[in-house]
Structures are given as C-alpha cells and as structure tokens.
Design a protein that fits this description.
Blueprint lengths: L3 E12 L2 E13 L4 E5 L6 H8 L7 E6 L2 E2 L5 H8 L2 E4 L11 H11 L4 H14 L15 H12 L6 E5 L7 H18 L2 E6 L2 H4 L4 E6 L2 E7 L3
Parallel strand pairs: 3-8, 3-9, 6-7, 7-8
Antiparallel strand pairs: 1-2, 1-4, 4-5, 9-10
C-alpha cells in the first residue's frame, strides 16, 4: 500500500471573482521508504499539492489517501492526529527565537504530552543525528541558516512521522549548506528509512531524490527515475 496517494486532485482558488486552477487533476503514488522530489517553476502547483497531502488545505475535487485512509472522511480531531504523523519542513525554518535548538526540537513532544526527561533525551538524540550535538544549547540567532534547517528537520522527526513533507527546504540557505542539507535528507532516507516528499524548483537538488515528478500549470507532466 502506498503511504500517500492522490486521485484526480483539483484545487481552485478565487482571485477576486476569477477562478484560478492551482491543480488540474493530479494522480500520484508515493511508496514507503521513497525519496520523491516534486519539481516545477513558481506557480506550477507543487506547494499546493504538498499542502493538500499534509491536510493543511482541502481539495476542490479528488481524493488524498494517507496509509489508505481517505483524508476527506476525517473530522477535525482525526485530522489533527493525522498531522502528527507527518513531519513538516519549510523554507523559513519557523523556529522559536527565544528557545534553544534543544527546546525547539522538544516542542512538538511537549504538545503531545511526552514527559520532560523522555522528550529531552529524544531531542538530544535527534540533534546528534542531524550533526548538531555541539550546538543544541544555542538559540536560532546563534546558528547559521543551514544549522537552523537541521534543527527544523530534527523537530520534524520528533513524533516518528510516517513521512516528511519538505517545501523548498534549501530555498533560504546558500549553495554549500543546501548541498549538506540534501545529503542529510538522503542519509535519513537511506539509513532510517524515512519517506520524503520534497518540493523544489532546483533541478540539481531534485535529481538527488530517487524519483522526480515534474509539474507545470497544475499537472504532473513528466516523471524521472534518478540514479541518486
């Protein structure tokens, strides 16, 4: 069974009185353990697709299945539970400035009611996994862009998500750090078996995934199997 499947997915936004089709019938399957990149220019619909897969928005038509469950059948409490099974990583790191790296990674576990000692131990382990064992007591302003994104990735992994959704995860960092982040993502996929769906407009980064789907004007127009 696919971890994620979309069937004839459509999303229409109203721009004033003018309907704008962001997605025009997207069919996609993502298997467990896969590293998939979604490549396309700005306005192609790739971030809209990510938001619908993550249950952050509702489709105009079509279906999203996560672990075989039709997301449209879930109530608000069930949707909240589903979102806890998904790790989100965004272009802008969304870290809390007054918290240390360790405290930022702890936050989702605190919200989930995990005890302080247990969540601190897991947060430290995750920061070590992403190469920040010696930076965990630093606040975001004391970290580079690449380090902040590593903290965001560690935070996304706290609740053992079924998959990671990454929206332009290297879009706000320099090319050296971008390369290091992608290598980290590949290692998490290869060694930890983390399923990853990454949106990007960068062909070079997209090719680091196992498979790339190419989007244009709200449709998947092509698919590439990479030698990543």
């Amino acid at each position: 069974m696919a971890v994620v499947e979309t069937i004839n997915l459509r999303k229409v936004y109203m721009l004033g009185k003018v309907p704008v089709e962001a997605l025009r019938g997207v069919n996609l399957k993502v298997e467990e353990g896969e590293f998939l990149s979604v490549l396309g220019p700005s306005g192609s619909g790739k971030s809209t697709l990510l938001n619908l897969i993550g249950a952050l928005d509702k489709p105009t038509d079509g279906k999203v299945f996560v672990d075989g469950v039709d997301v449209s059948t879930l109530n608000e409490n069930e949707l909240a539970s589903l979102r806890r099974k998904i790790g989100f990583v965004f272009q802008f790191f969304n870290l809390i400035p007054r918290f240390t790296a360790l405290e930022n990674v702890e936050m989702p576990m605190a919200i989930a009611g995990v005890g302080k000692e247990e969540r601190r131990k897991r947060a430290a382990e995750l920061l070590e996994t992403v190469g920040l064992a010696d930076r965990m007591n630093h606040k975001p302003t004391e970290l580079s862009g690449g380090e902040q994104q590593r903290v965001a990735i560690a935070r996304a992994l706290t609740n053992n998500p079924r998959f990671l959704l990454m929206d332009e995860p290297t879009g706000n960092i320099d090319s050296k750090n971008a390369y290091e982040i992608i290598q980290l993502v590949k290692r998490l996929n290869r060694e930890k078996g983390v399923t990853i769906i990454m949106v990007t407009h960068d062909q070079r980064l997209a090719s680091e995934a196992n498979r790339t789907v190419h989007m244009l004007d709200g449709l998947i127009v092509n698919e590439t199997v990479n030698n990543a």
